[in-house]
Write a structure and sequence with these properties.
about 0% strand, membrane, 2 domains, globular, mainly alpha, Poly_Biosynth_Transport, cell membrane, 19 helices, transmembrane helix
């Protein structure tokens, strides 16, 4: 049974997506002491500050293609010409957005007097935007062939780590840290695009400006949805900074980082099954609903196991990461441990909106959640401190479930009934 399960394309998709995320986290953990030792704590902080600006800019570069592109690739697999135009337009759109984001950041850093303390670190970090723009994970995700891109990601991270060891030795070299990350990623991504062209027979057409703009317009709502989701998931520490001292921020930040890693599970689950689910929904509704229910049951079991394991092992996890016991961080983590299970509860709602390409509903649900999360977390944090923020973030997952259920009840009632085991009369 297990060998057959491993052969399943969706399971392989999930495993390889997990490999990508795990390698990113592992290399990040390994690089921290190396960088602190070589460039010092102050420059390390500035490097990470520049990286946080790039992470925000990457939301613009991604522009929702992580949600829309795998579906389009999955539905276009049998038509090489259509697939070639699709790949050409998406890569061109993302490179154009990277150029736009780079121009804004350079203008702000070199001409607007912003980011003065770390402007050159930030300028050299801009290569990361083009690394993101050329990353073809969405293409291999749509084909459900993630092995190559996951191995390429690991290799790129190892190149980056080798670059740090061999080339970064003093604080004045801090501007090269993010540059090396971008260079290794961009180099590997260009090799992947060459593989797509020469081995898979995908042609790269000259960018059609009209279609590129049309592609960006079509993804506008998904981009705004990603912005809202980013604010909802990653805005907690910013809110807490208004009310807490540095020590509390540090203890909460440690627990939140673990919670963000746990939150990747439901996201990766959706990304892994999305291409196959899109094909099934277009071809056979009964097969889609059977598939969705099966994955939902597996996801719930895994999510519950992850929650219970994190809750029980919270003292050990915190002690290993902090090198000392931090009771407050343990309490925060035990509350946030429920995030993956609660997030998985919303899996069928999000998957249905994605396979039906209902961008407007995704946009509305994301911003309704953001409109709830920000004031609710502000109020709970002001009243109860960091623990109040933890419960605010937990309540956000519950509200997300309620909003997703409401939208599917209102707009996808037949599919909603079939999901919970009922059939609407006449179907």
């Amino acid at each position: 049974m297990i060998p057959n399960l491993i052969k399943n394309r969706s399971v392989q998709n999930f495993i390889f997506l997990l490999t990508i995320q795990a390698s990113n986290i592992l290399i990040s953990l390994i690089s921290v002491p190396l960088l602190i030792q070589s460039i010092g704590l102050d420059q390390f902080g500035l490097v990470n500050l520049a990286l946080s600006v790039i992470v925000l800019a990457n939301i613009l570069v991604g522009f929702g293609y992580n949600l829309s592109a795998p579906r389009e690739v999955a539905l276009s697999q049998g038509d090489k010409v259509r697939l070639s135009h699709l790949v050409s337009n998406i890569v061109s759109s993302r490179v154009l957005l990277a150029l736009l984001a780079s121009s804004f950041i350079m203008l702000a850093a070199l001409g607007g007097g912003m980011f003065t303390e770390y402007k050159w670190i930030l300028v050299f970090s801009l290569l990361l935007l083009f690394s993101e723009a050329t990353l073809p994970v969405w293409f291999f995700q749509g084909l459900e062939k993630m092995k190559l891109v996951s191995l390429a990601n690991v290799f790129a991270k190892l190149l980056y780590l080798a670059g740090i060891v061999l080339l970064i030795h003093e604080p004045t070299q801090s501007k090269w840290v993010n540059f090396l990350m971008g260079l290794s990623g961009l180099g590997i991504n260009l090799l992947l695009l060459a593989y797509i062209h020469f081995q898979l027979g995908i042609r790269f057409f000259r960018p059609e400006f009209g279609k590129v703009i049309q592609s960006i317009r079509q993804n506008w709502l998904l981009f705004l949805s990603n912005v809202a989701s980013y604010l909802s998931v990653n805005g907690g520490l910013i809110i807490l900074s208004f009310f807490a001292e540095a020590q509390v921020l540090g203890m909460f930040s440690l627990a939140e980082k673990i919670a963000i890693v746990l939150r990747l599970f439901p996201s990766m689950l959706i990304q892994a099954v999305f291409p196959n689910a899109s094909r099934l929904y277009a071809a056979d509704l009964d097969s889609y609903h059977r598939y969705s229910k099966k994955i939902y049951a597996i996801g719930l079991l895994c999510g519950l196991g992850l929650t219970l394991l994190t809750f029980a092992a919270a003292p050990l996890i915190i002690s290993l990461l902090a090198k000392k016991p931090l009771p407050e961080s343990v309490e925060y983590l035990r509350v946030l441990a429920f995030v993956p299970f609660l997030a998985v509860l919303n899996f069928p709602n999000v998957l249905l909106l994605l396979v039906k390409d209902q961008k407007k509903l995704l946009f509305r649900s994301s911003w309704l959640l953001a409109i709830y999360v920000v004031p609710a977390c502000f109020w709970l944090t002001a009243k109860y401190g960091a623990m109040g923020l933890c419960f605010g973030l937990i309540s956000a997952e519950v509200v997300s479930l309620l909003v997703g259920t409401m939208f599917n009840w209102l707009y996808n009632r037949e599919d909603f009934f079939r999901l919970i085991g009922f059939r609407v009369k006449g179907t």
